[in-house]
Design brief:
Length: about 140
């Protein structure tokens, strides 16, 4: 069993597609073992995306990620990291496969509805960024 951090970004929450995203996770056997809605300030978003600090889109991305509430979840399942990334689709929705969340709902390379950890190491760090051990269901 593997764990990954999933986020429904401010655009997804604002457009009312939380249920649609969760439906796709659950029907693909990704179990939600922790979940909450939070609103980050830009400093907190910068901390979360610290690996992208040098990228030209860092300010814009962290501004966007702190522009409204987000839903953060821990997903658990076999190959959860790769499986969820497949369900999300490519970062740029124009290159995402048919039937993926980003292909179906993203409007922009930045406003791409969802986030998912990209490795087991990242997943551990990202989960700990949002959840303490009492909030993680075993
Ligand atoms: P992910 O793992 O698929 O989310 O992609 P990355 O880790 O490469 O990038 C993190 C996030 O930064 C993406 O999900 C987008 O929201 C945003 N992003 C990535 N590339 C670009 C870009 O070229 N321009 C802008 N404005 N945002 C980007």
């Amino acid at each position: 069993m593997e764990r990954t951090l999933a986020i429904i970004k401010p655009d997804g929450v604002a457009r009312g597609i939380i249920g649609e995203v969760i439906q796709r996770l659950e029907s693909n056997k990704l179990k939600i073992t922790a979940m909450k809605m939070v609103k980050m300030n830009q400093e907190q978003a910068k901390g979360f995306y610290a690996v992208h600090e040098e990228r030209p889109f860092f300010d814009s991305l962290t501004y966007f990620m702190s522009s409204g509430p987000i839903v953060v979840m821990v997903l658990e399942g076999e190959n959860a990291i790769a499986k969820y990334r497949e369900i999300m689709g490519a970062t740029d929705y124009r290159q995402a496969d048919e039937g993926t969340i980003r292909k179906d709902f993203a409007t922009d390379i930045e406003k791409n509805v969802v986030h998912g950890s990209d490795s087991p190491e990242t997943a551990v760090i990202e989960i700990a960024y949002f959840f303490n051990r009492f909030e993680l269901i075993h």
